[in-house]
Specification:
By secondary structure, the chain is α/β, with parallel strands linked by helices. It has 3 domains: about 1-70, no CATH class; about 75-235 and about 270-330, Spore Coat Polysaccharide Biosynthesis Protein SpsA, Chain A (Alpha-Beta Complex); about 345-405, no CATH class. Helix content is about 40%, strand content about 10%. The protein contains 17 helices and 9 strands. The strands form 2 sheets. The protein has a 7-stranded mixed sheet, sandwiched between helices. A two-stranded parallel sheet has the order 6-9. The termini are far apart.
Length: about 400
């Protein structure tokens, strides 16, 4: 393994063609020299070093595990990969065309072609959904598809068309403004599950950017095809997760997790609800996308809680490698935690029996505006800040009164 590490750069640039070609060669070398058990051991050992310069080889190990997970696949499988685009008109371009360019559409196609090469029993498609982008991201995507001859693999949908056509999946959307990612992803999942394509049919949704290399899709497919669960979610918060993210710690995000944990009782072991890399078997997806109340950024949580209500212990967490693509993010400045919490209150009231503690938190969240929420964020109790989010399922000692002690909400 030391010789392989020596071949690897000390960082990963997923927009760099040289890096992308090299990582495929490294994966081939890993698979040629190690079996799956060896790779698992090597990965744990390298993670324990806590060395940022090992990110390239750690991503390669994830990709090798993903490839090997498909090695014993039996029977035909059809996979749909869905992602939404909104103000992605710069990031969809090549870096030579724009400083923020990631060329993410073609990159995603190449990643899936590489993963599924020589897999005649796997068919796949990619569905791009324009979430009402004022800059025409969907139109640009279609131009790229046409130019590169990808129409047999990739198609573009426009959420506004679904609304204007009064499709049942868009019945809760009056205008395109009622969706922030959620409506577009749900429309894509609905379209992917309308027809039976194979006995084993799986729908995956991801983010538009390159944060999650789609070569890891095999890691999500394995637990579904082996019937360990009906939903597999990428997680950035497991011991074997690989995360590269610049910036300071996100105390606001930690508070968000603590608060939603007080309201949603059936996702005990789930922490990272917002990672944009999830897979559902067709039957589960078809069930959980019906009659949703959330079409904005909290839609992930509703899909997960409905999956767990449909079948207990149906969700499998999958540690993934995630490399932040923050430079041109369309959500970095939104910080929609309060609006998400208010949506989660609606979920609590719809899906779960009332209890006094949850009711108190629900009413408290409903009473907040952005100014009062900012006050709470500036005064998060140390009992929350000192703990890891994984503790918040059991730890519930910070009550509503503790969140407002020391200052008054206007």
């Amino acid at each position: 393994m030391n010789k392989i590490i020596e071949l690897c750069p000390k960082f990963v640039d997923l927009t760099n063609t040289g890096h992308l070609e090299l990582i495929k060669k490294i994966v081939d070398r890993i698979i040629a020299n190690y079996d799956l058990n060896d790779i698992v051991v090597k990965e744990k050992e390298l993670i324990s070093r806590n060395d940022p310069s090992l990110i390239f080889v750690l991503l390669a190990l994830k990709l090798a595990k993903s490839k090997l997970a498909l090695a014993g696949l039996k029977g035909p499988v059809f996979i749909s990969v869905v992602f939404a685009v909104y103000k992605e008109h710069n990031r969809i371009k090549k870096k030579s065309e724009h400083p923020h360019g990631e060329d993410f559409l073609r990159r995603k196609v190449l990643q899936l072609e590489w993963l599924f090469e020589n897999k005649g029993n796997i068919q796949w498609e990619m569905i791009v959904v324009d979430d009402g982008c004022p800059e025409g991201s969907g139109v640009i995507a279609q131009e790229i598809i046409d130019k590169n001859g990808l129409n047999d693999r990739v198609r573009v949908l426009f959420l506004n068309d679904a609304i204007e056509s009064k499709l049942p999946i868009a019945q809760n959307l009056k205008t395109i403004d009622d969706s922030q990612k959620g409506g577009a992803i749900i429309y894509g999942l609905w379209e992917a599950t309308r027809q039976k394509r194979a006995e084993n049919q799986i729908v995956v949704y991801t983010d538009a950017d390159l944060s999650t290399h789609l070569g890891q899709t095999g890691l999500l497919l394995e637990p579904l095809l082996s019937h360990k669960g009906s939903v597999a979610i990428g997680s950035r918060r497991e011991p074997e997760s690989i995360v590269v993210k610049e910036g300071s710690r996100n105390d606001r995000g930690k508070l968000f997790i603590y608060l939603w944990k007080r309201l949603i009782p059936n996702l005990d072991e789930i922490i990272d609800t917002q990672c944009g890399f999830k897979a559902f078997d067709k039957d589960t997806a078809s069930n959980v996308i019906e009659d949703l109340i959330e079409t904005k950024f909290a839609f992930d949580i509703e899909l997960l809680l409905k999956s767990e209500l449909l079948k207990k212990e149906s969700i499998v967490k999958v540690p993934v490698a995630w490399i932040d693509s923050d430079l041109a993010s369309t959500t970095t400045d939104l910080q929609p935690y309060l609006s998400m919490l208010k949506s989660i209150v609606k979920m609590y009231r719809k899906y779960f029996r009332s209890n006094n503690t949850a009711d108190e938190f629900a009413s408290f969240i409903e009473s907040l505006d952005e100014d009062s929420f900012d006050q709470i964020v500036k005064n998060i109790p140390e009992e929350i800040l000192m703990r890891e989010p994984s503790e918040f399922t059991e730890y519930a000692e910070v009550g509503v009164e503790n969140l407002t002690s020391g200052f008054s909400l206007s």
